[in-house]
Amino acid sequence: MQVLFSPAQIAEIVKPKSALGDTAESIRSIASLEDARPGDLSFLGNPKYKGQVAGSKASLILVPGDYEGAPQPGQQYLWVDNPSAALSLVCARVEQILWPKPEPGIHPSAVVSAKARIATSASIGPLCVVEDGAEVGERTHLQAQVFVGREARIGADCWLMPGVVVSTLCEVGQRVRLHSGVVLGADGFGYEFVSGRHQKVPQVGTVVIGNDVEIGANSTFDRARFSRTVVGEGTKIDNLVQVGHNVVIGKHCILCSQVGVSGSVVIEDYVVLAGQVGVAGHLTIGKGAKAGGQAGISSSVAAGSYVNGTPAIPYLLERRLAVLHQRMPELFKRVARIEESLKLDIEQTPAREH
Amino acid sequence: MQVLFSPAQIAEIVKPKSALGDTAESIRSIASLEDARPGDLSFLGNPKYKGQVAGSKASLILVPGDYEGAPQPGQQYLWVDNPSAALSLVCARVEQILWPKPEPGIHPSAVVSAKARIATSASIGPLCVVEDGAEVGERTHLQAQVFVGREARIGADCWLMPGVVVSTLCEVGQRVRLHSGVVLGADGFGYEFVSGRHQKVPQVGTVVIGNDVEIGANSTFDRARFSRTVVGEGTKIDNLVQVGHNVVIGKHCILCSQVGVSGSVVIEDYVVLAGQVGVAGHLTIGKGAKAGGQAGISSSVAAGSYVNGTPAIPYLLERRLAVLHQRMPELFKRVARIEESLKLDIEQTPAREH
Amino acid sequence: MQVLFSPAQIAEIVKPKSALGDTAESIRSIASLEDARPGDLSFLGNPKYKGQVAGSKASLILVPGDYEGAPQPGQQYLWVDNPSAALSLVCARVEQILWPKPEPGIHPSAVVSAKARIATSASIGPLCVVEDGAEVGERTHLQAQVFVGREARIGADCWLMPGVVVSTLCEVGQRVRLHSGVVLGADGFGYEFVSGRHQKVPQVGTVVIGNDVEIGANSTFDRARFSRTVVGEGTKIDNLVQVGHNVVIGKHCILCSQVGVSGSVVIEDYVVLAGQVGVAGHLTIGKGAKAGGQAGISSSVAAGSYVNGTPAIPYLLERRLAVLHQRMPELFKRVARIEESLKLDIEQTPAREH
Predict the structure, then answer these.
(1) pTM here?
(2) B107 among known catalytic residues
(3) What is the SS3 string spanning A167-178?
(4) CA A62/CA A5 separation, integer angstroms
(5) A341 — contact with chain B (CB < 8 Å)?
(6) Which domains does chain A carry?
(7) How do strand C76-80 and strand C18-21 relate by DSSP bridges?
(8) Within an 8 Å CB–CB cutoff, is residue B42 touching chain C?
(9) Residue A79 and residue A65 in contact, taking contact as beta carbons nearer than 8 Å
(10) CA-to-CA distance for B187 and B192, rounded, in angstroms?
(11) Which of B7, B136, C58, C244 could serve as a FRET partner for A60 with CA atoms 20 to 30 Å apart?
């Protein structure tokens, strides 16, 4: 499927402040300045690549307002405020073309309970299952092979991709995008150790996903023991992330890939957790706090702070200790030299420790 | 779907030793002491919240035998031996109501081989696939979109949630709960490097899951090279855990979320691995050993020991080293002061190293 | 399902240089020297187990050319160049028997667009979905419940296991094996922070998987922002691995389980990343480089180097620092002893730091 734009159509989308040059090419794809060939749209998104503009083979280049230069023959420059944002406008148009709004209705191969409430503008794709009492909102799209359990509620304008599972009683807000393999509402991981066996603590709470949340492929969210596991409005979660039972995540947070959040953690608004971060149970991560990749958070983190390492400590302290850690060979040498100058022999003298 | 209990029904479930007060409310949900409102059941599970009982708005509160206090008007206290265990009894009843035993039989949309053996009391939900020679035991429930491969065997009283995959020849015991997205029997990760390419070592063994095991969403278990990858009876495994080929896990272990176990590892009974722990190949983790979150286990661990860190070392040693690590800035200062007092200049004197 | 070989059939497969002894048993399974019982095939794959050959109960044992010894009565030894490779030949035959080539054709329960192009020798299993414009190559097998999106292309001789998702426009080469739950083409994780909200950067690129790639269960690959996320020919990827948008992975790499690769990383040919390694965004991992388990790679890695730790540094340096780290209690004692011998009191004298 070929998406084709004329240069004039691109200009209509990005609304340039000015333009120079002319190209006869249709725009067939997007490429970096370096990789671009005729027929490509490119852009100067980062000033450090400024030197690549003049040599780029792209037919059409989005440049920032302060860029000075002129296109080669058969090439056009469009000056815009923010080339990266302008490119996103083009990509959004491409997205609409590649994934057109599906026709409303229920695919004949889907298994949808007569007791489910499906909005008339919703689209239930092939081989989906929707159980008794479930609700699917207006214009929401269950793409294919999606499962929506009993009494679960999906709001309006959502997109659930192939293989998503939303279990019994879980709730999804509006404009939520769940990528393939997301599981909402697996049992929380709770057992009591009785007579040498782990006895299950039943998990009968739910998962509640706020508006405008996006969740990446194969991420998992456990239902609460008896209340709600919550993801706040506007929070974005990457692939293969684990969120334990009773966790409450605030608004507009970012959880990168493979983050693991243990049970009953509270993550306040605007928190950013980089890839593979782990958070131990029952902690609070304060508003706007950040954690570096692979950080192991074993105590609560103050609002606004930036932590790193395992166990996670303030970022600058962690960086300083890392530098000193690398200087340990030198330190051992210095201590040995001191001992030699003092004729001390470590084997012979007892020492107090501190 | 509303689950309603009368206070008398709750009392019938938890069998209190004594009761005080009276409430006209029906019990509609469960909440913590602090969050509870009229119509809620709450409980004093942890003595540190004792002070919250008197102010709680819950209509019904489970308190331990030694709790002293009296309910407000319209409120009832029930004294029980273990409020947390009593609450679990209530939750278990809620679970039975929310997930009633499905009707036996095969959903017409399921694709079940005529050569599969399905117990008459088993329930095969919509859009499941069961291949030739597979067995499904009495009262076992394949909820929806489950795959059971050729000659695989699922025991009695299991629950396989939407999207579970049990591949060819794999075996699952009795009373096993597999959450959505679990994959049993992907190929082990084995290659031989021949002439600049990784040549596949065929993986023709199986995966064998013992009785009373529970496995969390999207966890993966590879089939053995030619024998069996094993999970012992009563072991509980959280979400997104990876278990490599030929691993043998004992009975009653706990593997928390995102743990990774490399090939041919032996994990003995009652081992506990916290979240994101990694275990290198061919090691043995002795009976009852524990590892802290994110530990990187690169050598075998003795029975009963508790390790932490990467590489994992005994917990107390790791903690002590972590404290000294944080004191490195101080140590560098102390050494500099000694050198100054001795007029030593690190640049000029050679030193033996130790 | 029982796979039975006569000793003569095994000999035909492994083509021994010589043989000794005779067994009347049919070969029913494969086991290690120690575990083997009559009816088992075993092998001496690693010289350190040489002592176990004489006591093994296996009916048939593959031994290397230089092995000296003689079978017990009712037992046969086969001398081969490489017993492990010979065993793989047997396992490959077992694999062919356990997973015979499926019949070509489209299962009646599959939902395949009339606008998809399915090769006549391809096999589309039950409950698969293939959308408009998708291509499936000769002899390729979509086992069950697989999703192939609009305009996606799957080459010849591939095997997509139950529950695999290949999204719109993604491309898969020839002889590719995708295990259950693999997701190709989830959106890249890209947002711009505007007015207190994370605004989605549309992700309209694709994922391109080269020939002879194998990808483990539940691993996820994000589509590029506008170009291609690439996995090169012959690369092998384990379970639960995350590959971000715009990542380019070279040929013949090994990515072990739970590795996470952030966006726009370049991984050159023959790189090996051990389990749970994390790679930060926009880095280059040079040709043939290796990283140890759980390494946190935060800067580019030179070709041929071997790194370890978080942040990842050269392996030998990391090992040396780890040893010194364990000697910190000793170092603190030595410094205290020096201070005592000098009558220095850390509280009283200011010191320059270095």
Answers:
(1) 0.95
(2) no
(3) CCCCEECCCCEE
(4) 15
(5) yes
(6) 7-98 (3.40.1390.10), 105-316 (2.160.10.10)
(7) antiparallel
(8) no
(9) yes
(10) 15
(11) C244
